[in-house]
């Protein structure tokens, strides 16, 4: 499906503030960027670099006063995500070198905690190693963790969420990743857009590496949904914050849209 | 200056033909991509990857029949290119590791030929090592090599051009790079757009690494000109062909435009 | 100084166990590998790859039964580590792109916790931003955290250590990194060898990026000490474990040596 | 087989001369470095970096006077190289992104010359696309190009060798690569050691990417021979010179050895 997705951020900047942003999707597996726009008002100098994972990162200094960023992309996406019930676990010695990284614990995915590996063992009891385990984890989170805004903050980890039993897409994702890694299933976080997400917002989900492929899992959804746009991926939210600010500024509004009709004016 | 630059390629494809393209500029030093569009007709699956130099490369199979590619970008560019007469040579032992690569001879820049180093020595006789040498080379080419379409082909090297004394922007660039490298000045090829180029076309120029900075040199121009958009860079044209085809297809038309007014419809 | 450093690990392997190791130092800033040896008994197939940070990682399957790994390197090291009291903070907008990564919180360095930033603020009250802050943090840890084996484990974070007030070199390092990052000083973990460390063991310390340079800080020491061999570096211990095992095996003995006389037989 | 391979270079240095060297093999596919030594006399500061292909490169300034470099490695190698008659060509659209690079023409492998592609077409007439073509090229070179020292120099390309019909291992390799690439078979140069090479010297051969695997081809040999140690690989000799000097120095002697008995003293 051809999607037009974008967001607009409006700020009051109390003092010139360095910003790092990840708001520009790249063409890649399952998505092709037909067009995109990245605007600021007022216009300021921006530099862009590619991080360790290949994500595009923008650096700028938000000027004191009102500041606005608006990005939009028209993207060809896949209508369906791949699923493969029964796909076997890729055992550690067969994992590609660059995938091993996603087995390690990270800031928000402390897969080394005993409480995580114990819960994972309970969830996948009797389930065949591989895809079905990751899916069991996804389904368990969807059933057992309540979705509610305002119940977590930027320091909340997957272990916290397991204890709190409540969170948002970021927390669902961190928990899913933590549980997968504790079973030696490589897992990573994706942030981006999802068509028909309700309520509309920037979204997060996870991918698990099984039988040679990165499969998509979204614990906030009750069934597999395609039409996703990846903006960035990494080990967890520490790697893929859409915005990191280094000074005093306030985001007043953030609007996000994903439309199936690309005729929206760019 | 805010430029709208683009190109449209029209093909007759005799049989399904794999293509590799480099037609998507990236934000980077001196340029910020405000918006861009990359369209094909008919639409076909495309993948994109980043090459060794960080350039974006698109891969697709051109389908049999009529095929059209159209790309356009609105880009904030610098009105002036930096110049620094008198800037000293960075001696080899002080070059950054990743710059050494651009001292080596390459397909179209055989800087190891004696004829190249001899000519370079003549051109820079009495000139201070560094920026002034690169500028002397640029000026010498501009004066001594005649610009004429159809006088060279895809196998022509900088050494050929030194002998022929005629060529196009690609040949001017290869010769400039060859001469610089023979003096231990790292040099690389850039392909992209230049505002007010006459006649308008995709363009090529070179950069030389001097005193810690990559400076722009364009041997086709009589004076320094800014408002350039880099699409790709590499050792020479082998690295940065805007299109590489692996099969039978014919390009019927190629239109290129660079406008200073970004209100052109995307 | 020319150091001969090495270690020997002896295992009882209950079942064939995949291992990832980081036991091969590379030549780099401040160290030159004159010779090295990497032996296993029994000999098994090994592959080696370079991780995201450039560290060399070895992968193998430890065979059931007795297994032994022995590595040794003769390395030219610097007798002194650089120090620069008064060196100013590099402000965020001036940090190189690839250094920004080391400002982010990580598994064992939760620099985003309020308790960390509050403690950091107290420690550096009245201290000039930059080198002196990092040194104040190092000295504070050396004074206020007790060094004791067996008081922490593989899940212990810098925040835990701040609370516990006790730990080993790994914990001292994680706390130092956490505190530095909370002040927008990029910091990373180094594991390796230190001459005359008492008791001798594999060691860990941190580096902070100040005024364009990565400076060495070791909170376990009372004064600056050189003659270090870096084996690996990364965001924290999750990135630079010298050994990660994926199955049942027991390390029986681990011997580590660092000698100033390279005449030790290799 | 466990090989001990090394070389010793002796120089008269007329003036302090920057050197770039590639004399340290890395563990990788088919080879495991058990131990290695890298010595200089007199000892000078050296830095090491990894180039675009992952090769280790050493930089130093050779001091005026007598200078000596001696490197040696004990390496576990494969006794046999893989062969796969009948393996089909990997068509361009199925090549991995990072392999495409090795289809492009390069300094010493002008695969874009018509004389090259015409000769390639003659050599492989009637041969099935893929492994058998690369092997036909290798055999043709072995039969039709005469091996003789002193018949080529550092500017000689594969096209020159096709014309001259004489050369050394480097020239055989460049010609093989040129011919393969002209048939859309990715090919790259390897430099290293070969056990029982006669006369003993640093050696060069090529690899061709066929059916998903890089196969080894050595046009200087009449039959497949294993027990090779790769020191570096790249597009051609411009990428993988074991030594590049930037100033006046003379190599007096170069000794190379490859022994099957690792008991040689390191």
Automatic annotation (TrEMBL), chains A, B, C, D:
Any Pfam family hit: Bact_transglu_N
Top-level lineage group: Bacteria
Protein name stated in the entry: Transglutaminase family protein
UniProt-listed PANTHER family: BLL5557 PROTEIN (PTHR33490:SF12), BLR5614 PROTEIN-RELATED (PTHR33490)
All residue ranges annotated as the Transglutaminase-like domain in the record: 161-221
InterPro entries found in the cross-reference section: Bac_transglu_N, Papain-like_cys_pep_sf, Transglutaminase-like
Stored Gene3D superfamilies: 2.60.40.2250, 3.10.620.30
Annotated source species: Fibrivirga algicola
């Amino acid at each position: 499906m051809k999607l037009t997705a974008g967001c607009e951020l409006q700020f009051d900047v109390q003092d010139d503030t360095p910003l790092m942003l990840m708001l520009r999707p790249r063409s890649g597996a399952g998505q092709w960027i037909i067009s995109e726009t990245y605007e600021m008002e007022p216009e300021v100098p921006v530099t862009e670099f590619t991080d360790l994972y290949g994500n595009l990162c923008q650096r700028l200094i938000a000027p004191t006063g009102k500041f606005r960023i608006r990005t939009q992309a028209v993207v060809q996406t896949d209508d369906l995500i791949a699923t493969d019930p029964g796909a076997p676990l890729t055992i550690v010695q067969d994992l590609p070198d660059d995938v091993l990284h996603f087995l390690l614990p990270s800031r928000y995915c402390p897969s080394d905690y005993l409480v995580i590996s114990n819960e994972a063992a309970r969830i996948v009891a009797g389930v065949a190693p591989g895809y079905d385990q990751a899916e069991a984890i996804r389904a368990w989170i969807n059933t057992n963790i309540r979705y509610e805004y305002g119940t977590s903050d930027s320091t909340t980890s997957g272990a916290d969420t397991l204890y709190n039993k409540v969170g948002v897409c970021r927390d669902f994702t961190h928990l899913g990743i933590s549980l997968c890694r504790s079973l030696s299933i490589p897992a990573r976080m994706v942030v981006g857009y999802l068509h028909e997400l309700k309520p509309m917002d920037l979204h997060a989900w996870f991918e698990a590496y099984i039988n040679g492929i990165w499969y998509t899992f979204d614990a906030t959804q009750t069934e597999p949904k395609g039409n996703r746009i990846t903006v960035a991926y990494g080990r967890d939210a520490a790697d893929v914050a859409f915005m990191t600010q280094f000074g005093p500024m306030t985001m007043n509004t953030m609007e996000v849209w994903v439309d199936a009709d690309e005729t929206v004016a760019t």
